[in-house]
Design goal:
This protein is an alpha/beta fold and 332 residues long. It has 13 helices and 14 strands. It has one domain: Ribokinase (UDP-N-acetylmuramoyl-L-alanine:D-glutamate ligase, 3-Layer(aba) Sandwich), CATH 3.40.1190. Helix 3 packs across helix 11, helix 9 crosses helix 10 and helix 11 runs antiparallel to helix 12. The protein is globular.
Length: 332
């Protein structure tokens, strides 16, 4: 029996959310709905613009990082998860370590962390629930193979690779090394494309990971179009079959389309009033992987994943509380 249902590798960030309007994004020269990598000086200027000049108050601060969010929902649903990441020996890093421990997610993190600055993400949510992010990676930009725990990975049922790692030289190396360990140990490999900007700018890196063998690919429609060159959802489904033997493509409120190697499974979205789409893809993937770990088929996994994402976007924040999971997702 495996020790972990899912072993994740990805960035470690502390998220701060703000409510803004479109005019603010235009003034800050930020592309709406896209994740932009910034340096520490840019982060400080943006915070000043948010809190001083425009008096936007932070809605919520929480542990984040895309794949970290995915590992948390796996644990909240009753699964077991391990997360390889990198934070600094600072107060923000301390917060992140406590946050994952409270969520019952095991990690490679200890007290002997390096000096530096832990990564932080500013998420700005507009009234239409669209989220625009700026990420200052800090020390997580130097995630490397030495942050891996090969024993824990070999004793996992599934590896989950965060696509954002393709933007870091050492992070990409860590992703490839984790993939190699998993494949040699017979551990299934899953990958999320993470963000349209990542696919557009680092397509060759994604193609290398996919070429090495990915059992399950997660993406949204925009990411699928950029990866494959196809257009409509049906065309993307056909094209994605050339990249992975199994995949799930989310289509916003319209739901998601999965391919299990034999059939296409279309699942309608769960109606809700969306206020914040931050983390929707993360929680979708985690719920899907949890369902598979319990022996469910792609149809049941698709349904749980859509319910989970719908519940998440109905309130602010990139994660659900355990109470929300127990009340909204564990009913049968």
């Amino acid at each position: 029996m495996k020790n972990y249902d899912v072993y994740g590798i990805g960035n470690a960030l502390v998220d701060t959310e703000y409510e803004v309007d479109d005019a603010f994004l235009e003034n800050a020269k930020l592309p709406k709905g896209i994740m932009t990598l910034i340096e520490e000086d840019d982060r400080q200027r943006l915070i000043q613009l948010l809190e001083d000049e425009h008096e936007h108050l932070a809605v919520k601060q929480a542990g984040g990082g895309s794949a970290a969010n995915t590992m948390v929902i796996v644990s909240q649903l009753g699964g077991t998860a391990f997360y390889s990441c990198k934070v600094a020996n600072d107060s923000t890093g301390d917060f992140f370590v406590r946050d994952l421990a409270d969520a019952r997610v095991d990690t490679n993190l200890g007290r002997d962390r390096e000096e530096g600055a832990t990564g932080q993400c500013i998420s700005m949510v507009t009234p239409d629930a669209e989220r625009t992010m700026t990420t200052c990676l800090g020390i997580t930009n130097f995630l490397s193979p030495k942050e891996l725990n090969p024993e824990a990975l070999r004793n996992s049922s599934m590896l989950y690779i965060e696509g954002y790692l393709v933007s870091s030289v050492t992070g990409f190396q860590a992703a490839l090394e984790a993939q190699s360990i998993a494949r040699n140990a017979g551990v299934n490999v899953s990958l999320t494309l993470s963000d349209p900007a990542m696919v557009e700018n680092f397509k060759a890196n994604y193609e290398q990971i996919l070429g090495n063998g990915v059992d399950l690919l997660f993406c949204n429609h925009d990411e699928a179009r950029l990866l494959t060159g196809a257009d409509t959802p049906d065309e993307c489904v056909t094209a994605l079959k050339e990249f992975a033997p199994g995949f799930v493509m989310t289509c916003g409120s319209a739901g998601s389309i999965a391919w299990d190697g034999d059939r296409v499974i279309s699942t309608e979205g769960v109606p809700t009033t969306a206020v914040d789409t931050t983390g929707a893809g993360d929680i979708f993937a985690g719920a899907f992987l949890f369902a598979l770990s319990r022996g469910e088929d792609f149809s049941a996994a698709n349904q749980l994943a859509n319910r989970s994402a719908s519940l998440l976007v109905s309130s602010f924040g990139a994660r659900l509380t355990q109470r929300e999971v127990d009340a909204g997702l564990k009913q049968a």
